[in-house]
Structures are given as structure tokens and as C-alpha cells.
Amino acid sequence: MDFNVRKLATDAGIFFSRAVQFTEEKLGQAEKTELDAHFENLLSRADCTKNWTEKIYRQTEVLLQPNPGARIEDFLYEKLDRKVPARPTNGEILSQFMLEAAKEFGSGTPYGSTLIKVGDCQRRLGGAEREFLQSSSISFLTPLRNFLEGDWRTISRERRLLENRRLDLDACKARLKKARAAEAKAACEGEAVPDFQETRPRNYVLSASASAAEHELRVAQTEFDRQAEVTRLLLEGISSTHVNHLRCLCEFVEAQAMYYNQCHKYMLELQRELGSCSGDIRCPDSSDVGSPADPSAFPSQSSPSALETDALQIEEVQPPASGTRTAKVLYDYDAADSSELSLRADELITVYTVPGMDSDWLIGERGNQKGKVPVTYLELLS
Fold first, then answer.
1. Is the pTM of this model over 0.90?
2. Which residues contact 48 (CB under 8 A, 6 or more apart)?
């Protein structure tokens, strides 16, 4: 193997000298060139940005992919520069199991048909989750990773180079100080013992040594100032990094809001679909043949209240003296019969409840119109 032994020995000597110098600075036995307060603030801000960006990045990975095995697999594929294979979401897997179970039980049975409806909803939820994971990875995780693996590595490299330049500068200062001290000592000794044959050559050598030290100091100071300016520009770029991360964070919030909104919409549709067919669902071991499988989730079909059997009684319902509230409609809703009130998104209506009414419904009023409205479509304001 071809390598330069002299260069290796020189680098080892420089490394050892810097290690000794750094240790002496820590012990207070050597002078240290201090950076200005603004530069120190930039360094502190950069370190803070790196630490918190790393924590946010790691925890976001956990949020998007809770399975540590899957995260390790994705990491290995990324390092091997290979495409990560498509991985079904938990909702898509559950949908597949439900659909296969429906085939076994029979799609014509109440249980089988309900499994098909719920399985289709789980499939759509899984698809929404997949889109959310992809968009979040592109718009949020990727910029954070690019900063940690790109910009921050550049900043760290320039900071190490600046630290080496500072150590070289302090070493030149120490050599110049030592040379001047030796020159001053020799001058004092020459005045005390005027031996021209010995003092003149030695003074000439000491003076030349001090001049060489001064030249090295000027060169070291120039290199240190140049490297300090380069590092300062990189550290000031952290402000632009914050602006970029703020934009990415807003995009992540938008993707998350869209994902949860889609999930809520799918679940409301499923709830409405199951509620419309709840009369066909019967508990096989129940003595009450007409009772639904889950009376808390679906309106009762065997013992409807007066409000549900006679739509005309809606007009006879009077609002209570106190207890009315204003509600904002979240989604459009089409009335299933004349006892219900159709709703349009973002409109404001007055709502109240009456004794004996199902907790999932309220009486809504809009001008002269009145009817039952589902609670899940409303946001109560006052």
C-alpha cells in the first residue's frame, strides 16, 4: 500500500500538539482566542436547532410508522439504495380479512353483508392513511432529513475547521510570545555582560525567530478570519432553515387535517349506511326479536318514540323556555323523512332536546322549518 510516512508523522504530530493545547486550555494553563458574543449566539442557536430537529424527526417517524421493525427495514432499503416494497396498511389488511370472512359466512346474511360494508370502509381508511404517510414523508420528513444529513454536516465540518484554525492561531501567539521573551532576556544579558563575539549572533538568531513567529501569526490570523466568516455565513443561514421548516410544518398539518377529515367522512357514511339497515340486524339469542344488535349505536326499530312514528308531532314540539343552543352545521345532510331537517354545511341553526329523545339526535330549527338533526353533523357554539 502506497502512503506517505512523512505526512503521516506530521499529521500525528499536529494532532498531538493540538490535543495538548486543547487540554491546557481546559485546565486554564494556555490562552484561548474567544469568539464574539454574536458568533457564540449563532453557535448556540445552531446547536439548539439541530437537537430539536433531530428529536422532532425521530418522533414523527414513530408517529407515522409505530412498528420499529418496519422502520429498520425502510432504513436498510434506503442505505442499500433500493426501493422500499409496497407495504399494506393495517386498515387494508383488516379489510381483506373482513371481506374473506364475509365470503365464508355468506354475503346474503346480515353479518356477512355488514362485514362487506365495514371492510370496504376500512379499505378506504387504509388508502387515506397511505396517502397521508406518503405526503407527510415528502413534505415534512424529507426536508428535516436533508437538513440533518446535508446542511448540518457542512456546518459541523466548517466548525471543526474553524476550531483547528483557532488552535493554530493560539499556538502562533504562544510561539511569538516565547520568542519575544527570549529576545528580551538575551538583550538584558547582553547589557550586563557586553561580550560582542557571542551576544550579536545569538541576538540575530532570536530576532529572526521573532520575525518568523510574527509572520506565522499574521498568516494564521488571516486564515482564522477567513474561516470565521465562512462559518458565520453558514450559521446565519439557520434563519432560512427555520422559515423552510415552518412551511413544511404547515404542509404537514394540512395533510394531517385532510387525513382525519377523510376518516371522519368515511365513518359518518358507514354509520349512516349501517343505521339505515339496522332493522335487518337481529341478535340471535335475544328474546326481543325486534331489538337491534346495538341499540346504543342505531335508533330503535321495535319501539319507536312518538317523534319517530308520527312526523306531524314534530310541528307540535315547542322549544323549552331555557336550554336552546346555537349550532354550526359541519356537513351537508339530506333528511330521510319529513320528521328530519335537511342541513347545509356552515349554516347556523337553533337546537334543543326534548324528554325521551335519543341522545344522538336534537330538534333543529331554521326559520319556520323544524325537524330532527344528527348530533354528529353539528358543532355546538353556545
1. no
2. none
